[in-house]
User: Fold these one by one.
Assistant:
Number 1:
Amino acid sequence: MVTRSSPNVVKFPTTVKAVIKTNTAANAPVKAKDYYIRDEMLNGFHVRVRSSGKKTYGAESKMPKTQEKVYVSLGDINLLTEKEARRRATEVLLKIKDNIDPRIERLASSGSQKNLLEVLQEYIASRESPLAPRTIEGYQYCLEQFFNPLSLKPVATLRKEHFLDWYQLAKKSPAAAQKTFTVARTLLSFAEAMGYIEDNPAERAKTIIGKFKRKHSIKPFIPFNELHKFLSAYTQCSQDEVISHTMRDYILLILVTGFRREEAQSLKWEQVNFEKKTISLPDNKAKRYFEIPMTHLTHDLLKWRFENTKKSNYVFASNGRTGHIVEPKRAFKKIADKAKLSHNLSSHALRRTFATLCKELDISLDDSGKLLNHANRNVTDSYVSRSLEYQRGLYDQVIRKIESRVENTIDGQKVYGAYNGFRVFFYGADEGWYSVELEPDNEDYWNA
């Protein structure tokens, strides 16, 4: 604040007008802030003097049609004479006057004419560690659905103002805005590294925008006190064939194993080993070979599908393009509507339910992380070997917890508990296994 008694505040001008001559740039003093010396003879020609001491010749003007400002750096004053810089500035300014963007021409040979969708393809091909197909689809979807028409502009023409204007509209959907912005910023960093652009405009825009504001949404899962409603609706929809056998089995498999959606949907019979009683997931999000033991229930489920469904490479086959089921939304909606749940159902909600049940059973974070195939929590964990039998016991605990919430009516009274009920009523297991009370496992585990 300036008062009568305070000293004068010196404000450095951001622009100085002069006729740029041979020694003008060399003699220009370095100040605390960047400033421009703008030529009085050739409008748009200038010298930029940075606070760091670097001095460059440049040219700028507006595109006639779009009124977009175009800035072109001509080169360091130590590499160009004033005469050569003036000649280059004249060429640049004439092109802009003819509505030709010199930035694209200047960097055309290096790829700056590529748009973000084209840069994405190059980014994918350049990675030593390949991206998962679903990740690639997600990147493309973000650019095509949330970043048009900017995703089609040459990367050399993108400016921070484009991102700021786009964000004002996109922030109505904060999660999509943040993800899309991150994708664009990553691709522009790649373009900068490849020499297609001089700097990343998304980085500058992010500094101005600051931290993205996101809505704190509750991640859905089935609480234990509502699990009986889900199980009743799921069982009824399965018995009445409101949902198909394929959806019945897919939903149950995720609920009792915590598989990711992609892992279950694309499961192949070659990954199922009935002799070893294991299921392997060689390609997964954790990027490591993963093998889990079958339980009574998962064994009978898979055996029933192998013997009673159309032959296919996939466990959950479909007539669609992929050859396997893709989107179970309709089946989940039918169950959720019947159960009158307070939230929507999804494959990931069942995975979260599995994780929550592990927590309620006091299964350690390391053990539950192993069951869910999370990335190693620490280096030591990668040296810890957990036997298949130990893991099988953990999965069985979760299954028993789930079965304990199945509703029954005995002598007119509602009770809970239907152990091995899914095996008996869905997959043809011996009725002697069915019980309304938890009983110890039979030693003849697989042949009963």
Number 2:
Amino acid sequence: MKPVALHKRTMNRVAITSLVLGRIVYAINWYNMAAVFSLIASEMKQNVSGLGFVISAFYVGIGVFQVPGGILAAKAGPRLTVICGTTIASLAALLTGFAGNLAEIAVLRFFVGAGMALVFAPAVILVTRFLRKGSEGLGVGIYNSAFYLGGAIGLSGWGLLAADVGWRNSLVISGSLGLLTSLLLVFCVPKDTIRSEFKIDPHHLKHIIFDKWLIALSIALLGLQAGSTVVGNFMAYYLENVAHVGVGEAGTIASLALVCALITAPFSGRIFDRFGNAKWLLLATSGLMALGVSIAFFGTLYSAIIAGILVGLASGAGFTFGFAAAREANRFDPEYETLTVSWVNSIALFGDFAPPLLFSYFAIQFGYSFAWLCLASLAFVLIFPVLFSRASTRKGSNDQRAET
């Protein structure tokens, strides 16, 4: 192998490693609020509705800023966008440890979400760019696996950490780790090659925004997101306050979904690379997601464990299939890849501000069993638009195999 090629491969591996480490800490700051909220609720005299309010504020932030993040990445490059987003999210996460009331926590969680909105799609493009051609689905799977690993650490570990050092110090620690990963990205990810002549074409932008296939994909991902959100963010609190399970045990059970997703995401990337039939792959994972959420209806430790396993299997596969399909739907310049993924993610994540509010309302008014069943139904119903949409792929792509 030529020295230049060897050096480039080494640099790519270092870049991918730094992005993966950043993704792990990103996920810790995503999920640790659910792990420590019982302590916050005790101090601030809150209940499950307060958790729903804080989670919704986060999803509004991460949903609203997806498309601006995609536009920024197209103009300034994905590397700079990822660094800026990681810094904003980490700083807001750190400052949450100093919040005096629930409203301040909600505002800061909004900015955590806003910063994270600038990270995901540009980082997906960077990871797939640094891998060899033909392994793009695997790249999405690897990056998603890092998210699930970090989420599992956040759910299972941060409750224990908060019980030991206090919830405020635990959030300061996770925010500080995020700032360290920002520095890592600065030194380890190669600078972008920006084409000075590139300009965002309103005609191309219009085609992306109104692409029926992309909209259908985003709705399907919203269904998956709704199921994974209520299990990932409410299960620990539910077990602690309804099943009277300890903080550490509740966090461990809640993290099962993320552990299972960690296992399935890379394999799902390979499956997509081989078959690419996004419609039926997403139908299968949405059905599994609905089944997993509905099993929580029984309200036992065993049902919570089974629910977590099934939801994890579904989310690990489903999000990998969805984002890989969205990336390959870009029919314009490579700079639009980030915007395409961001647009799909924006609808899925912005729409996800509603499920936490619905779940907390149903739980208070009708009980947790009713809330689990309603969200399970929502997760499955939202798959139907993608089944009746024509898959769009870039001209000349081998993804004609994905057409159904």
Number 3:
Amino acid sequence: MIGDEHILDGCFREARFNGYVLGEIHINSSKLIPNSRRDDFIDNQTKTEFYNMIDRDIGLPLSKEIRLRSRLKSQIQPTKKMQLENDHSVEQIKVAERDVSENKGSKEESFVRPSAEMILAEIFEKCGEYKKVKEIKEKYGY
């Protein structure tokens, strides 16, 4: 075991994102050598390549996913609240969600945003057996 729970903080866009995910990385390389304190690896080209790979293949995609989910949650929640308070039709909600999705994020994030229909389909697929979900599906015609 090398380092502590903060060893990969620098591989995420925001250090706090490292605390949002759990996992282990098993390394089988004689070129990646722990230092004497075992709080990191000896500085060499392999260490640099290792951290660059973690940043590129794990940190960056997870950071984008966390930001996306946070943005969707903050943008869709007011829409759902409005639906409950004013009993808007499903079509009005879809129009509002489409307007939200058309306001794209910054240029640095060039990933595809899931539509509200995709999100609802996933929720219904995973939670479809629950009574409340069945009621919602029936009420709104999904």
